[in-house]
Design goal:
Blueprint (H helix, E strand, L loop, with lengths): L2 H19 L5 H4 L16 H30 L8 H8 L1 H4 L2 H12 L3 H25 L3 H9 L4 H32 L11 H10 L2 H34 L1
Family: Belongs to the binding-protein-dependent transport system permease family.
Membrane topology: Multi-pass membrane protein
Subcellular location: Cell membrane
Length: 245
């Protein structure tokens, strides 16, 4: 990717890092949005710490969702596991059946307040895109390639490890990208059940009628989602070029 195309993202990254390192330096940006005596910069916690906790929560949930979704997709695309496809689809669709708030409401009585219910919600919401992309990728590997591999004496496991999985990686990364971006937005809702995310900043703004707080939380979440989306898009394009080589 050319430097010209990367420039906006580099600027965005520098702005995020600069804001988290010294929020007070941006007071002049948000000051017009608040009343005279109200704070213009979130002061009820450490913005950098909340950002790291937000990223960590999304990363953990997406990691576990990737492991489960990819494993299920591999299972149902093998001859011995094809009969489990309806069950697998039911499992990965659970998260899409209920809105995030409903998942949190169901999880809190069992897990209590904190990060647990939010991790469950993020995990469930991340399953479907990764599963569907992985399954589609594995079932669309050109038959002539796998037939040639069989003709060369490769075993099914070798064909999977050396041909099917590598060729499927770009689409798998595409599913992970979708799930991760969704996760960044969904994680903010977790603060309603005492999860440590950037949702705390937004909720604090809503409670005190402070537009600056709301914008700081929302803009940080949006910036993180954009940066991670671009990073995974670059990985996806690199894998596509490698696949075509």
């Amino acid at each position: 990717m050319s430097l010209v195309r990367l420039a906006p993202r580099i600027i965005l990254l520098l702005l995020v890092v600069g804001f988290l390192a010294s929020p007070e330096s941006f007071d002049f940006v948000f000051r017009p949005l608040v009343q005279a005596n109200a704070p213009a910069i979130y002061n009820q916690g450490d913005l950098a710490a909340l950002t790291l906790l937000h990223v960590r929560m999304v990363f953990i949930a997406t990691l576990f969702a990737t492991i489960i979704a990819v494993a299920l997709a591999i299972l149902v695309t093998r001859p011995f596991g094809a009969e489990f496809l309806p069950l697998a689809r039911t499992v990965v669709n659970i998260g899409q059946t209920f809105p995030p708030v409903a998942v949190l409401a169901l999880a809190v009585p069992a897990m209590g307040f904190g990060n647990g219910p939010t991790l469950v919600a993020l995990f469930l919401y991340a399953l479907l895109p990764i599963f569907e992309n992985t399954m589609t990728a594995l079932t669309t590997v050109p038959p002539n390639i796998t037939d040639a591999a069989k003709g060369n004496g490769m075993t099914p496991i070798q064909i999977f490890r050396q041909i099917e999985l590598p060729l499927s990686l770009p689409m798998i990364v595409g599913g992970i990208k979708i799930s991760t971006v969704i996760g960044f937005g969904t994680a903010t809702i977790g603060s309603t059940v005492a999860a440590k995310t950037l949702g705390e900043v937004i909720i604090a703004g809503l409670q005190s009628n402070n537009l600056a707080f709301i914008l700081q939380g929302a803009l940080l979440v949006a910036a993180l989602a954009i940066l991670v989306f671009d990073l995974l898009s670059m990985a996806e394009r690199s894998l596509m070029k490698w696949k075509a080589a």
